[in-house]
Amino acid sequence: MKLKVSLFQRMEDVVDKWRKEYKSVLESYGEQTIADVKVSQVLGGMRDVPALVCEISVVDPYEGIKFRGYSIDEVIKLLPKVSDFPYVLGLWYLLLTGEIPSKDEVEELEEYIKIRERLPKYVIEVLRNTPANTHPMTQFAMAILAMQRESVFAKSYYEGMSKRDLWKPMLEDCINLIARAPVIAAYIYRRTYRDDVFVKPNENLDYGANFANMLNVNDDFVLDKDFADLIRIYLILHSDHEGGNVSAHTCFNISSALSDIYYSVAGGMCGLAGPLHGNASSESLRWILNILKFFNGIPPKDKLIEYINNHLASGKVIPGFGHAVLRVTDPRYTAFANFAKDKKLDSDVIKMVRLLYEVVPDILKATGKVKDPYPNVDGHSGAVLYHYNLKEYDFYTVMFGVSRIMGMTAQVVWARAVGFPIERPKSLPIKTIVELAQKGK
Ligand code: HAX
């Protein structure tokens, strides 16, 4: 395989380092116990069971996401910039290698990705042959899966490539997928909600601005520079959130069977589509719009509190609030709030987001059961998209998905590089769990 971009060389070096580290950890501590598992954890969605490895990012309950050890503020500060915002692919470089790239390295990667953007005609045909009212996430997962036939990884595997080298064709596939994901997403947007006119990638734009341009949210073929800034930051913020969340883990799990990245990411997207996960962003915006409609504008605080209490009493969750790991306001939410403040956004949806922040945490605290009463990323992301005229909220999870592919691919390349085995945890019938619990085991 031709190593055409310096990222491959950098990866060769780091992969070697990871392998040594992984091997030595296994040799030194392989038989060491690191945790006990309670019945409540087994029956409670495996919360906090330390059973997975993820080098790409870590979610601290109180500090939030760290990408390769860097906080959101550090990432925004340190990554090379285009028009005052970090290059999106600079983040992918960081997720893959663990190193902040130089401006030259990122620009080289941006150029390399552009060569791979062209969408095969059959992918467009797959989408065109799907009813336009098919959920955008279904279309996105289908388009990704359709490209499986092109997997360099699958071809290399069946041609007998050594396990040690499989991360290289995996990275090739990931580059192709990263290049095409925004093109596919933008086409899904255009055909589902607008005029079915396919806006071609613009080779003069960086990855984030190009995606913004292809979405053409104002239908005027003029790039809104603030919207491009939003998309750059949006793609960075949603990229990864450890290995245990539904989409990341589904993707990782599928790939552990040596399924290629198309199978793996398509599976991950199906998990992201759930309302308790990535679709919470659509749900949150829908909920905000319902409130605005119900009150014919921004409601007084006391009426809003009453409305929320009624919503909870009807057995529904408040979308965009709560988290399985976080115990503070999600720093990704704060990054969007800062963006909205810096750009002086003050439409009704943004005002509603601010008002909900004032009232919802106390209401959730008062239930006595919600572990994290604070807003998560999905509590703000939809409102900023809506502000810039991306109003079709069913599409928001696709936006999330385009970004999350960066994290999923980085995790899978890492797994193939260190030779992570097929995942196969043990499942037990409840009767056996009771027997084990009674024995105190
Ligand atoms: N509104 C109402 N009730 C909530 C709640 C919310 N926002 N968050 C948690 N709860 C409830 C749970 O439903 C649970 O109730 P029951 O015991 O009656 O089942 C109880 O509080 C304890 O839950 P928890 O331990 O605090 O939360 P979990 O780890 O079980 O669930 C969720 C985490 C994110 C799924 C949850 O907070 C939720 O449903 N939030 C709303 C949906 C949402 O915003 N999801 C996006 C999360 C971020 C993400 O993954 N983005 O992709």
Which key terms come to mind for this protein?
441 residues; mainly alpha; Citrate Synthase, domain 1; Cytochrome p450-Terp, domain 2; three-stranded antiparallel β-sheet; two-stranded antiparallel sheet; globular; binds N-hydroxyamidocarboxymethyldethia coenzyme *A
Number of domains: 2
Helix content: 55-70%
- Low-pLDDT parts are none
Q: Count of helical segments?
A: 20
CATH class of the largest domain: Mainly Alpha
How are helices and strands ordered from N to C? Answer: HHEEEHEEHHHHHHHHHHHHHHHHH
CATH architecture of the largest domain: Orthogonal Bundle
How does the major sheet shape up? 3 strands, antiparallel
N- to C-terminal distance: 51 Å
What percent strand?
A: under 5%
Silhouette: globular
Radius of gyration: 22 Å
Provide the CATH topology of the largest domain. Answer: Citrate Synthase, domain 1
List the bound ligands: N-hydroxyamidocarboxymethyldethia coenzyme *A
Write down how many β-strands occur, each being a DSSP E stretch of 2 or more residues.
5
**SSE-based structural type:** mainly alpha
CATH superfamily of the largest domain: Citrate Synthase, domain 1
Which sequence of strands runs across the widest sheet?
Answer: 1-2-3
Could you walk me through the main structural features you see in this protein, from its secondary elements to its overall organization?
- The chain is mainly α and 441 residues long.
- It has 20 helices and 5 strands.
- The chain has 2 domains: 1-28 and 42-274 and 394-423, Citrate Synthase, domain 1; 280-387, Cytochrome P450-Terp, domain 2 (Cytochrome p450-Terp, domain 2, Orthogonal Bundle).
- The protein has helices at 6-29, 39-42, 72-78, 88-97, 103-115, 121-128, 136-146, 152-158, 167-193, 207-215, 225-237, 246-255, 261-272, 280-295, 301-313, 331-342, 348-367, 378-387, 396-418, 430-439, and strands at 57-60, 64-67, 70-71, 81-82, 85-86.
- A 3-stranded antiparallel sheet has the order 1-2-3.
- Strand 4 and strand 5 (85-86) form a beta hairpin.
- The longest helix is centred in the middle third of the chain and has 27 residues, at 167-193.
- The chain is globular.
- The structure holds N-hydroxyamidocarboxymethyldethia coenzyme *A.
- N-hydroxyamidocarboxymethyldethia coenzyme *A binds at residues 245, 276-278, 280, 312, 317-324, 364, 369-372, 376, 378.
